[in-house]
# Entry
Amino acid sequence: MKSFLRLALFSALTAAASAQAPIEVEIVGTAANHQLSWTTTVNYNYQVFMSPDLENWLDTGIAEPGTGSTITYGLMSTADKLFYRIHETVDPYNGGFLVLPTQDQEVDLIDGVCFAFNLDVFSALPAKIRIYQRDYNSGNPWEQIGQITDFDEIDGIKFVRGSAVWLPDAEGEYEVQAAVVDGTGTVIASAVRRVIVGSNQAPTITITSGPTSPSAIAQFAAFTTAVSDPDGDAISRVEFYDNGILIGTDREAPFGDLIEDLEQTSYNLLRGTHDITAKAYDSRGAIGETASAFQVVITGGNARPTISVTSPASGLIVTQGQSFTISYAEGDPDGASDVDGVIAEDLSTGTIASDFSAPFDDFTIDTTGWEPGTHTLKVVTEDTSFEQSYPHYFTVFVRTGSGTTFAERLVANIVDEATAAPSNEAFTGVQASSDEYVDGFDSGLELDSGVILTSGLFSTWNIGDISEGESQRWSEQGDLELEDRVAGDVTNDAAVLEFDVFCANGQLEVEFQFGSEEYVEFVFNEAQSGCFNDAFMLTVDGVVVSLLPDCSDIVAVNSVHPAITVAESSGCLDEDLDALNEHLYIDDDEIDAALPPANQAVQVEYDGLTVRLRAHAFVTPNQLHRVRLVVADVGDDQLDSALFIGEGSVRTIAPSP
# Structure
């Protein structure tokens, strides 16, 4: 007996059809003793299933990688009839197009599920990649959560121009699958992958020892701690509190040796009972707290005065030239007569109000002449021994006199309001650091218009390539979330734009480029003293989505760069460094060579840039999601960096089936 059977591609996606010609299978022999053979294709996998009734299918155990040759299997059976089907997929483990997530990969909600692809298995760039999910082992229909259409090939490397991150609603086990659609509309489905989504576990912290207690004299506020993280995450910082007041932060193990507050001030514990507690933050933002306080009792000497600011609340927004009132209550355990004065300061400019005569009155602050942007204010009480209270910090945002706030104007520029509705816009930083821009193509950018957030001065973004180290120091605070998630060190001069967005569709996209004056001198191959990378971060609901296309790292100076020699590194390399993701990098010399002479006066200033990238975040549709964009100097306040966000590029799409 000789028969021919044409088998269609069997896939877990019912809509998927093979991009190859249908598999032609030859069956020779009898039911009791027969041979099954077919021709394979390179970069594909083949599994054989059999059934006596076309309902109950059994895996025969035959699984072969495609080599381009003909596969022949001898089979025996006592059945009167058998049906065979062959599952043909792009090789999911050895060169297949779906690289991540891997089978049974465990992720946390705070990280999302990142998808990475190997496009080199295809002769041409895909038309699109569709991404699907469903509950594991549920048999439910597949839900398409997104599609990717932004592909490119640079220097022979095929890649997705950006990241693709799914934000599940809840913990659980899921199945995910991707399907590539080629230029003719045919489809290749990947293998199905199980993904286990859990929660990031908070670190644990205990204060194990501290100053002598009880003590008749003041003691320096230094402690030892035991800190661990059940997930093995790095501890980014530990905050210390005295009776609920934040008195300092330590960013280096062993945590507690030195406590520093917002202004790097170290404190003594003065007379009184001090219940010291601590919070430990891991590198993915989980927070663990001490279960009980570590008590230190100082019985003698001077007591620290106190301050309680009753208004305004932190985050006050005022129009430039408008006045506001600081209301406070001062005190001192040594008695009211020991209070010598109350002082209010703007950390960027100095003292803005003071009162050294009792009774102490509220401060009326006139913002005429204040720079637009965020101002961090501090209020302290001082006693007759010149000891100050623990400071009370709060922020005031000064906007210009227009009816629209600065943040609202920036967000309106970058959000496509036909598909996404923004609200609760907020900007933190110096207003002169950031603004809208136009004519980016003329300056060598790949985004022609939009918004720039910088750690320096906005107006220098296109002054021509005139400096290897453009720096604007604002002496402003950094961003704790950026430090915890990606920077790993203290940050300065942060520019932060954040807003809620109602997503009409389930795929949220943002287009951006990152540029920095730290190229290429401050690329380094290991942590070295004095060597830092400025950082930026784009998050959606707290999940970092500004990742490399292969999900291996964040987009940064240290993850996207050309080959660097020790001579170019300003001491940050101890050996020459190979290029890393160089296809995503644009050097200022390349831009200079490509621009006509008339445009070089307005060339983008930054010494290096990434190519235009697009972050894809697959979210729950018809809900509010929080978008946060931040850029800052890391480790110092030198060498400016910038994040360019494309006009109208914050948008949602409904993936097409």
Summary: The first helix runs from residue 406 to 414. The chain has a mean pLDDT of 88. The chain has five domains: 2-90, 99-193, 204-298, 306-399, 406-653. The domain at 204-298 is CATH 2.60.40.10 (Immunoglobulin-like).
